[in-house]
């Protein structure tokens, strides 16, 4: 838990700075840069290591982070690569594992609430942009994101 928190806290401010104004990040980062214990212990969250250092993490859930979900729909959750380890295939390996695990569990679709920053990555992984959304983090704090989805082969 602490290693994933540290990864999120170190990487999100650097990765998201080009796509979000400081006024949004100052409110959102303390909320989105925290690992979800229920996700980490779900058996559906994966860690990438370089020696003993956590350099990437990501997973999926069968329930949407913001409410009800369609049947057989998996939800990509908290995929991140250490900002010092970008462009080395870590994110791709994590998403390949996420997709395969979700498919094995019977999911036929994957959805994702992507940061603006991650849209090109998720597009390269086969997800399609559906629409811009505001994700309610807490009362009065909404985070601009992009809803994306993809079909999984049966």
Give an overview of the whole structure.
There is one protein chain. The protein is α+β, with helices and mostly antiparallel strands and 154 residues long. It has 5 helices and 6 strands. Strand 5 and strand 6 form a beta hairpin. The longest helix is centred in the first third of the chain and has 15 residues. The termini are far apart. The model has no long low-confidence stretch (mean pLDDT 94).
Q: Rounded to an integer, what's the Rg over CA atoms?
A: 15 Å
Helix content: 25-40%
**Side-by-side strand order of the widest sheet:** 1-2-3-4-6-5
**How many strands, which pairing sense, and closed or not: the largest β-sheet?**
6 strands, mixed
Brief sketch in words of this structure:
The chain has 154 residues and is an alpha+beta fold.
Features of this protein?
alpha+beta; 5 helices; globular
Q: What is the topological layout?
A:
Elements: H1 2-16, H2 22-32, H3 37-40, E1 45-50, E2 53-61, E3 73-81, H4 90-104, E4 109-114, H5 119-124, E5 128-138, E6 141-151
Parallel strand pairs: 3-4
Antiparallel strand pairs: 1-2, 2-3, 4-6, 5-6
Helix pairs in contact: 1-2
């Amino acid at each position: 838990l602490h290693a994933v928190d540290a990864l999120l806290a170190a990487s999100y401010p650097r990765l998201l700075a080009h796509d979000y104004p400081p006024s949004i990040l100052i409110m959102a980062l303390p909320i989105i840069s925290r690992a979800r214990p229920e996700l980490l212990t779900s058996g559906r969250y994966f860690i990438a290591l370089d020696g003993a250092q956590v350099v990437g993490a990501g997973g999926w859930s069968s329930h949407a982070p913001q409410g009800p979900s369609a049947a057989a729909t998996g939800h990509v959750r908290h995929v991140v690569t250490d900002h010092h380890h970008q462009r080395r295939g870590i994110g791709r390996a994590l998403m390949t594992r996420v997709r395969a695990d979700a498919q094995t569990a019977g999911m036929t679709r994957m959805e994702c609430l992507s940061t603006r920053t991650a849209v090109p990555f998720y597009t390269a992984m086969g997800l399609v942009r559906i629409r811009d959304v505001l994700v309610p983090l807490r009362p009065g704090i909404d985070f601009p994101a992009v809803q994306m989805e993809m079909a999984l082969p049966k």
